[in-house]
């Protein structure tokens, strides 16, 4: 192994094993795949485990950067919300919505607008014990949205971080990070308080040179978290966690906005778990948490007064292309053709057929317009008549916009783990979750979705060399159909630490509330004087729930894998080949002006992955991952889309896919210093890009009595000049670096 297995946090004692499942200290174990602690050779999935020692050795600042060391995973970045995204195999980089991310069993996946916002996760890298990444569908264990995989972040127990830790990091690209943490014990209680702030300037933009930054995508986020643990009695453990966080993220400005609608965010959560051990063969836990996420996003805007006409708003729901034309025609006012067309519609002198013919001849638009829809345009234009002409229809009005959003989650779960015999053990449970969202912009008020879950997984040792894992989860939701997600895996144990596994699994991703039940519109308040005499209004482009009838995204995955630990070489190897069939995908961009959102895209993904960890000697270890991904997308009904929209949709699911992926890392540990060098190679990334870079992280430690200061330097060199996913996502220098200092006492 690269690093010896650390003691697992107390809150995961549900998974403690007794004879005949007792593990030797040298056998790597996994917690996440089935909610049972299992030797790696017996796990019913392909799993990557990243330990605290590796996190420190690599020296990365953020969780998305850390995920680049996982085979088949790639890091991207949204083009509009300024959020890093992690994709496993293939996905749209704008919204990361097909991976489940857990922190100590608490889901940080946002259900209102499906995504994982990595900046909003209040976990310091220094507090992480291990990260387990289940590479493949795992809805059988963690439910809908554990679609392509699960990232489980397990934090350190306060008893493992006693004392004070201080860190500071500074570098180019605006990197400015601080961290302080104190852990203590009193009687039988242990606790930790951590505070962190992290800031950087993001990308520089496509035209910046020499370290300049012309692209507004910087961020600054900070949090304070607390962790408390105590034994209630000899068989019961109580754990509590809480956090408060706030941050600022730059968001690019839309054409009608006068200033940038930067996001001001506030998050918090309360989490508790009580674990009861009834006997050496039976334990349970009860877990509950509440988390809240508040986002304020406001700006000033100027736009055509006609775009706030309430009748144009209603017309958009009935015929969006015609309502776009009603507004577009006003740009021709002042010309003979424009004045004649607007005047003819306002006077009722033209028929729908005549308007359709004019639009087809002059703009190439093939529309179908009813007399009622033409009458709506007549009313809209008439309101802009000033007694002489229609020039008021080109007037502009200014006001304030907001895209505020508050999401709350209430979750309670009971889990029971039972060892029935020497050959059979199970884990089962039930849970209830309410996701509640309040936003005038996205939902015109408050909406919620309740989810009820029943899950079970059984591990049956059929013979001394055959192990069967079978399980599933049944879910009932308010806003989506009921779903059952099964998984069956057979592990053939060639030796205690060598196995061949065959895994079949199914999973779903539930359409989020914005996808399924939107009432989405941009409100403009405190309006300047306008011919409509409005003090506030809504931009005519809008989305309603009547326009949606989406189904669960579905995936069927088959995997053949091998795991082996060669103890004499201190080497671990995991290899797999797989076939994933994805159907009913929602590939359309979920935007205000999306004319159609369907769940009818299909994707087939075939490939192979390998990960190798080798502890060459007491001073050197190596990490090697490789992946080959062959993904093919089949679009659904595109009859209502333009050719440009079809081309864009055909590549959106592959924008964050690298056909070939290779990561190599070497770490050397000296007596009081260390050096880690890593190389990343992604070919055919974003279809044509090649993305290569290397990183070097070095650290020197001193010992001064009870004080242990250290200093480090991190360098990232970009070999290729290609952007990440979009044209502006590039740096104006090939070398990104930062200095780090720390003190432990």
Helix/strand-derived class?
A: mainly beta
Count the beta strands: 36
Number of helices: 11
Helix content: 10-25%
**What is the CA–CA distance across the termini?**
29 Å
Rg, nearest Å:
28 Å
Average pLDDT confidence is 91
Blueprint of the fold:
Blueprint lengths: L28 E2 L7 E2 L7 E5 H7 L4 H5 L5 E5 L6 E5 L10 E5 L2 E2 L20 E8 L3 H4 L6 E7 L7 E9 L4 E11 L2 E12 L18 E15 L2 E14 L13 E17 L2 E23 L5 H9 L1 H10 L6 H12 L4 H12 L7 H12 L13 E7 L2 E15 L4 E16 H4 L1 E17 L4 E12 L5 E13 L2 E12 L3 H4 L2 E2 L2 E3 L11 E2 L4 E2 L8 E14 L4 E15 L15 E17 L2 E15 L8 H10 L7 E10 L3 E13 L3 E13 L6 E11 L16 E10 L1
Parallel strand pairs: 6-9
Antiparallel strand pairs: 1-2, 3-8, 4-5, 6-7, 8-9, 10-11, 10-36, 11-12, 12-13, 13-14, 14-15, 15-16, 16-17, 16-18, 17-25, 18-19, 19-20, 20-21, 21-22, 22-23, 23-28, 24-27, 25-26, 28-29, 29-30, 30-31, 31-32, 32-33, 33-34, 34-35, 35-36
Membrane topology: Multi-pass membrane protein
Family: Belongs to the TonB-dependent receptor family.
Pfam family, one: TonB_dep_Rec_b-barrel
């Amino acid at each position: 192994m690269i690093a010896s297995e650390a003691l697992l946090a107390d809150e995961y004692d549900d998974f403690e094993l007794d004879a005949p499942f007792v593990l030797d200290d040298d056998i790597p174990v996994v917690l996440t795949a089935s909610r049972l602690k299992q030797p790696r050779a017996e796990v019913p999935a392909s799993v990557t485990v990243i330990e605290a020692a590796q996190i420190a050795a690599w020296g990365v600042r953020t969780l998305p950067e850390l995920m680049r060391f996982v085979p088949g995973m790639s890091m991207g970045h949204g083009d509009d919300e300024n959020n890093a995204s992690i994709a496993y195999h293939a996905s749209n980089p704008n919204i990361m919505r097909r991976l489940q991310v857990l922190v100590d069993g608490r889901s940080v996946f946002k259900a209102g607008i499906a995504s994982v916002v990595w900046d909003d996760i209040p976990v310091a890298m220094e507090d992480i014990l291990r990260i387990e990444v289940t590479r493949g569908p795992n809805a059988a264990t963690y439910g809908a949205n554990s679609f392509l995989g699960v990232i489980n972040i397990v934090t350190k127990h306060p008893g493992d971080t006693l004392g004070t830790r201080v860190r500071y990091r500074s570098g180019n690209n605006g990197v400015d990070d601080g961290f302080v943490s104190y852990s203590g014990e009193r009687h039988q209680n242990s606790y930790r308080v951590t505070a962190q702030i992290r800031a950087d300037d993001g990308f520089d933009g496509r035209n910046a040179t020499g370290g300049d930054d012309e692209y507004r995508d910087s961020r600054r986020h900070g949090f304070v978290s607390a962790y408390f643990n105590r034994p209630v009695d000899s068989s019961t453990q109580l754990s509590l966690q809480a956090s408060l966080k706030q941050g600022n993220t730059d968001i690019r400005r839309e054409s009608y906005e006068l200033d940038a609608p930067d996001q001001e965010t506030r998050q918090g959560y309360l989490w508790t778990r009580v674990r009861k051990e009834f006997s050496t063969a039976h334990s349970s836990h009860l877990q509950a948490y509440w988390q809240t996420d508040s986002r304020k996003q406001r700006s000033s805007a100027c736009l055509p007064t006609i775009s706030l006409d309430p009748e144009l708003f209603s017309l958009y729901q009935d015929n969006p292309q015609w309502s776009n034309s009603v507004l577009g025609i006003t740009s021709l006012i002042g010309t003979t053709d424009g004045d004649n067309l607007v005047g003819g519609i306002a006077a009722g002198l033209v028929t729908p057929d005549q308007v359709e013919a004019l639009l087809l001849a002059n703009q190439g638009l093939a529309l179908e317009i009813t007399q009622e829809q033409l009458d709506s345009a007549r009313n809209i234009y008439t309101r802009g008549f000033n007694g002489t002409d229609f020039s008021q229809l080109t007037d502009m009005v200014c006001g304030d916009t907001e895209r505020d959003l508050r999401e709350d989650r209430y979750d309670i779960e009971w889990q029971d783990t039972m060892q029935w015999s020497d050959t059979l053990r199970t884990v089962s449970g039930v849970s209830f979750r309410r996701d509640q969202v309040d936003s005038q912009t996205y939902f015109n008020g408050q909406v919620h979705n309740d989810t009820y879950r029943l899950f079970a997984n059984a591990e049956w040792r059929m013979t001394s060399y055959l192990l069967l894992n079978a399980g599933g989860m049944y879910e009932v939701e308010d806003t989506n159909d009921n779903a059952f997600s099964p998984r069956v895996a057979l592990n053939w144990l060639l030796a205690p630490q060598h196995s061949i596994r065959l895994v079949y699994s199914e999973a779903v991703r539930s359409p989020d509330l914005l996808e399924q039940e939107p009432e989405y519109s941009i409100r403009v308040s405190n309006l300047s004087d306008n011919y409509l005499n409005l003090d506030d209004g809504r931009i005519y482009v809008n989305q309603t729930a009547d326009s949606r009838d989406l189904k669960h995204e579905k995936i069927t995955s088959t995997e053949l894998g091998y795991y082996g630990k060669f103890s004499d070489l201190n080497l671990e190897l995991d290899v797999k080949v797989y076939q994933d069939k994805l159907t009913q995908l929602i590939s359309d961009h979920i935007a205000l002006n999306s004319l159609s959102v369907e769940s009818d895209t299909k994707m087939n993904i075939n490939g192979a992955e390998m990960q190798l960890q080798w502890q060459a000697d007491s001073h050197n270890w190596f990490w090697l991952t490789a992946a080959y991904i062959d993904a093919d997308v089949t679009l659904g009904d595109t009859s209502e889309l333009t050719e440009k929209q079809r081309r864009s949709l055909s590549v959106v699911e592959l924008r964050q896919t690298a056909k070939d992926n290779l990561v190599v890392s070497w770490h050397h540990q000296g007596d009081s210093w260390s050096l880690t060098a890593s190389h990343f190679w992604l070919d055919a990334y974003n279809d044509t890009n090649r993305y290569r870079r290397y990183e070097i992280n070095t650290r020197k430690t001193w010992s001064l009595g009870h004080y242990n200061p250290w200093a480090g330097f991190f360098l990232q060199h970009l070999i290729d000049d290609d952007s990440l996913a979009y044209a502006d996502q590039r740096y104006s220098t090939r070398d990104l670096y930062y200095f780090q200092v720390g003190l432990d006492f």
